[in-house]
Amino acid sequence: MRKVVAVTSLTLDGVMQAPGGPEEDPSGGFRYGGWSVPYFDEMLGEAAGETFEKPLELLLGRKTYEIFAAHWPYAEGPIADQLNSATKHVASRTLTSLDWSNSRLLEGDVQTAVDGLKDEDGPELMVLGSSDFLQTLLAHGLVDEFRLWIFPVYVGAGKRLFGGDAVPSGLELVESGVSTTGVVTTIYRRTGDVQTGSFAFEEPTEREVERREAMKAEE
Amino acid sequence: MRIVVLNHVTLDGVMQAPGRPDEDRRGGFDHGGWAVPGSDEAVGAAMGERMAASGGLLFGRRTYEDLLGYWNTQPDSPFTEPLNTARKYVASRTLREPLPWPNSTLLEGYAADAVADLKAQPGDDLHVMGSSELIRSLAGRGLLDEYMLMIHPLVLGSGRRLFPEGSAPTNLWLVDSRTAPSGVVIATYRPA
Questions:
Q1: Burial class of A218 by CB neighbour count within 10 A (0 to 12, 13 to 18, 19+)
Q2: Which residues does chain A have within 8 Å of residue B184's beta carbon, measured at their own beta carbons?
Q3: Which residues pair with A186 in a beta bridge?
Q4: Which of A8, A11, A13 to mutate to test the interface with B (most CBs of B within 10 A)?
Q5: What is the ipTM of this complex?
Q6: What's the average model confidence in pLDDT over B87-91?
Q7: Which residue among A87, A187, B18, B76 has its CA within the 20 to 30 Å range from the CA of B38?
Q8: Rg of chain B over all Cα atoms, to the nearest angstrom
């Protein structure tokens, strides 16, 4: 059994669109591409390198695949070597063939295909970018671990990691750190259902019941 | 005085009904009480430090009615006396003086204008809790000085968010960050 790991940079309002530059993904009229760039320091640079030190396979949506396939085969260095040689699993309803080395299409429905991959032996399945495809993975509860960098900025628009279809999930924080520039780096693992509780007393008073009714009527 | 937001949020930015199932079911929200399991001693201590140096509380109308109305009807609640004793400012276009709970002042007219006047006065930090709509209008006017966010390790996928769609883009400084044993990240930000 291997894990699906989402490696994602987020704004404080949860946006993951185009962290690296204005040209990366301007869809939907997004004007803040490149929001992560001013915050890169030595620590984040090293951590980014470490992300690609261990063997991995990639799980990608079609648009991120196309961005990567136009970049990494033409790049050099250890990260390029790692990504070019890694097996890439690509979700697409429109592509019929893939020309980036070691890439293959996910066959059939996503849940069955990804469950099948997770059952195989092999390195972890890393999701980079792929905001649309992640919505499908989250809706089926298929992401086991999140490595999130939370940047100290909010932008008020753009594609969000947890865009609303996410299955409610409890998580465990297994690691956290802070860059010199105020980026909170975290690793969360999915633990199952959301646990809730109450600071309240067991029996509501008459007045509290009235208040609840009034609040419902306000909608 | 500075205006400081103290709020629980989920990892997906939801701030609705952290404390009780029936706190706020608007929009069919049925995860109320999600902040309870993560609110350990470290989270309590972080809140306690702020409350010990508080110049008062600043609420939107809904949060004021919920918190004061609820705890004042609970027998033997440890929250009732501190809530009643604290100086409270309430932003509302519909309430009229006198407000129903002690030490409460109604902010009339545009909340942001009234809060701008308060900020100009000397004093300890005013603390905002809950109050999503008030926060939105104050953030839009650049009136918030600091956010202490208790980021709980869970994803809800629905509910009212602290920074909703349409928030004016804002850079912040992270001025403090600590992690509670429960996995809550307590992060303090100031608009840059």
A1: exposed
A2: 173
A3: A148, A176
A4: A13
A5: 0.95
A6: 98
A7: B76
A8: 16
